[in-house]
Design a protein that fits this description.
The protein is mainly alpha-helical. It is built from seven helices and no strands.
Length: 229
């Protein structure tokens, strides 16, 4: 007979994860705005006016600062999110019967293994979402016969799209040179940042929703019954 594991509260970890995501979103939005300013300045700098050239230099420096801050914010955010994700999957053993389709470790290494990282985190997230559904009978085994999360689908689409745009931007093919190239790279940075902001907002929504669903499953205090978004 399966002996349920003790439920590990998610609320505190979810709080700090959402705070880190919020800071990361702010830096990501700042990076996108800086890229837009740089693109505008690059267009004006073509006239070789001293003032516009100086504006282009300031915009480029601002973009570099935001990129540096965003990198450190992303690392912190990734660590906290992976801690939360690992615990959320492990908590399934508290109110569901193993084995599951994916391991607790897959919630972490699924993000870092090439190729696999394109789909594995999404599959694990859907298992966590379904397994955390309070309408699923206690001790039911995976796969859980409930609807997949549309929220998770859109989150993952935004996350992967942002990553693809970022990858293409870092390894540009043969293209325009000089200021025209700067505008092209700035535009791709704006697109990557916009997609990242959308994915980040949806990630916060997922963290909060799953945390609430698991509290309901574990019988801990929760405000309202979560929707099947």
């Amino acid at each position: 007979m399966h002996e349920p594991e003790p439920f590990r509260p998610l609320r505190g970890l979810a709080f700090w994860t959402c705070i880190a995501l919020g800071v990361d979103l702010f830096l990501l939005a700042g990076r996108g705005l800086s890229a837009w300013v740089q693109s505008r300045a690059a267009s004006l700098a073509e006239f070789e006016d001293a003032a516009t050239s100086e504006a282009f230099g300031r915009a480029s420096r601002m973009l570099l600062r935001f990129q540096g801050l965003y990198f450190f914010g992303f690392v912190l955010c990734a660590v906290l999110f992976l801690c939360w994700f690992h615990r959320a999957h492990r908590n399934l053993s508290s109110f569901r019967t193993p084995p599951f389709e994916y391991t607790d470790g897959a919630a972490v290494w699924g993000f870092v293994v090439p190729i696999v990282s394109l789909v594995y985190p999404y599959w694990v997230m859907q298992e966590v979402w379904k397994g955390s559904d309070p309408s699923v009978p206690r001790d039911e085994r995976a796969p859980f016969e409930v609807l997949a999360s549309r929220l998770a689908r859109v989150w993952w689409a935004g996350y992967v799209s942002s990553g693809v745009v970022g990858w293409v931007r870092r390894f540009p093919i043969q293209g325009p040179a000089g200021l025209a190239r700067v505008r092209t790279l700035a535009f791709s940075t704006m697109v990557e940042s916009a997609l990242g902001v959308v994915a980040g907002v949806l990630c916060i929504a997922l963290v909060l929703a799953i945390t609430k669903r698991q509290e309901l499953c574990a019988g801990l205090p929760a405000t309202t019954r979560p929707s099947s978004t």
